[in-house]
Design goal:
alpha/beta, 433 residues, binds flavin-adenine dinucleotide, seven-stranded mixed beta sheet
């Protein structure tokens, strides 16, 4: 606990950042530089799109800034999930229910929850469109729409999930299937995949592999399992310090890594997985599996593709240091839906939220934003039921560690931070107003 206290007192943003709160800044609508006051409920001082990690965090901060009744979040889901726990749910170490809370309960008091889906953005007119053709206007817009999962881009999915032996920690609908497949394992190949797209939490595809390996060791089945990590990437992890540590573990635990292999088809009835070789176009490999863990292709939410606020791919096009939109000064982006060139994690959002809070304060005062985001992100690499390597790094893929110890070593303390302390900080500090 004391180390966390030290971290929180730093100006830099680390796991302890989840405890940091912005100072309350009283500011009425009339104090803002933009023209008319928003009175009706179809116009808000600050409109937040998406009520996931980034959206709820920013709505709490914005309510402090502009007051109750002046902030709204557009979010269709009734349930809010703390997704980082799904790694442990898939391995049977936590119940799915512990990752879920009603959206209503995480919506900060005084923030309006608009239970709908955004269908279009018109930043030239300062408004967005919702499902029922309802228009909502704003003075300031924060986009936090997350990343979309595309299981359907793999032939045979998602219908293949109706068969046993296959799971995926990335979706609430399939995460418990991972645990079932893990327990059902008898003998053969256990294959873990990493797609050929950006993903959220790039460590998660291999965390479940280490947990599975540990589970089979514990249950006496390890010698029956041929464990394979088939990844589209050419490296095991993007930061050398942690990659070196992971490669040691992979060697020691006798895991096979096949680089530049992309899952393109699942024949779930035959328990076959088909991979393309990204270095040999047209060449595919078929592997029989006894267990398959799928990390799906991912991409920007549909509503952002070809939107005026997006780059050519569909990510919200923001300044890498201030998170302000490159073209529309009253529009901001946070989290997985942005083109910030860092690893997409909740930890990154914790760091981004502090910077974005300051950026918006300055913009509201007609001043230039000064606080800069360094790309901080963190990935607790779970390597067993009581072991974690805590990777923390910046835009340059340089370690940016919180603790004065070698974080590339597997540690029990870091496991408890990931499994027990982080969820508490998430619900009780990061999301709170
Ligand atoms: C298996 C797994 C393990 C992970 N492990 C870690 C970890 O150990 N550490 C870590 O820091 N991070 C981890 N993450 C990543 C982390 O959960 C995400 O990076 C983070 O939640 C992203 O927050 P976000 O606000 O950008 O998106 P989300 O939290 O996904 O929220 C996006 C919201 O937008 C809403 N939305 C989408 N489209 C629309 C629309 N058209 N209109 C209105 N609303 C819409 C969605 O309903 C959703 O609520 C993990 C994720 C997974 C899946």
């Amino acid at each position: 606990m004391s180390t966390i206290g030290v971290a929180a007192s730093c100006s830099c943003l680390r796991p302890g950042v989840w405890l940091l709160k912005p100072g309350v800044q009283k500011m009425s609508c009339l104090g803002l530089h933009t023209a008319a006051r928003c009175a009706a409920k179809d116009c808000y001082e600050v409109l937040v799109l998406g009520g996931g990690t980034g959206g709820i965090t920013m709505s709490a901060r914005m309510k402090r800034k502009v007051g109750a009744g002046n902030v709204a979040v557009v979010e269709p889901s009734k349930t809010h999930y703390y997704q980082p726990l799904w790694t442990l749910v898939g391995a049977g170490a936590k119940q799915l229910a512990t990752s879920a809370r009603p959206t209503e309960s995480v919506m900060p008091q005084g923030v309006d929850w608009i239970k709908s889906r955004v269908t279009g953005l018109d930043p030239d007119e300062n408004c967005v469109w919702l499902e029922n053709d309802k228009k909502i206007s704003y003075k300031y817009l924060i986009i936090a729409l997350g990343i979309s999962l595309h299981y359907e881009k793999i032939k045979g999915l998602p219908e293949g999930f109706h068969h046993p032996k296959i799971g995926s920690n990335y979706s609430v609908h399939t995460v418990e299937k991972t645990w079932r497949a893990l327990q059902d394992f008898k003998e053969g190949n256990a294959i873990f995949t990493f797609p050929n797209t950006p993903v959220k939490c790039a460590g998660a595809p291999q965390k479940i592999m280490y947990l599975s390996e540990a589970y089979w060791r514990k249950t006496g089945k390890r010698s029956k399992a041929n464990i394979m990590f088939n990844t589209s990437l050419g490296v095991i992890f993007g930061v050398k310090k942690y990659a070196d540590a992971l490669l040691e573990i992979i060697k020691e635990r006798n895991i096979a890594v096949n680089y530049r292999r992309n899952l393109v088809e699942v024949r779930a009835d035959k328990q076959e997985a088909v991979f393309e070789n990204l270095d040999k176009p047209g060449v595919t490999e078929v592997h029989q599996y006894e267990m398959l863990h799928v990390t799906p292709p991912m991409g920007p939410p549909d509503v952002l593709i070809n939107s005026p606020v997006s780059d050519e791919i569909g990510w919200v096009d923001v300044d890498t240091e201030t998170l302000q939109h490159k073209k529309y000064p009253n529009v901001f982006g946070i989290g997985d839906c942005t083109n910030l060139p860092t690893s997409k994690t909740a930890a990154a959002i914790a760091a981004q939220s502090g910077v974005l809070d300051k950026t918006i304060s300055m913009v509201m005062k007609n001043q230039l934003p000064t606080k800069k985001y360094d790309g901080y992100t963190s990935c607790p690499l779970v390597t067993g039921y009581n072991k974690v390597i805590l990777a923390e790094f910046d835009y340059k893929a340089q370690p940016l560690e919180t603790f004065p110890i070698d974080q590339s070593k597997e540690r029990v303390t870091m496991y408890h931070m990931k499994a027990d302390m982080m969820p508490l900080l998430y619900w009780n500090a990061l999301l709170k107003d």
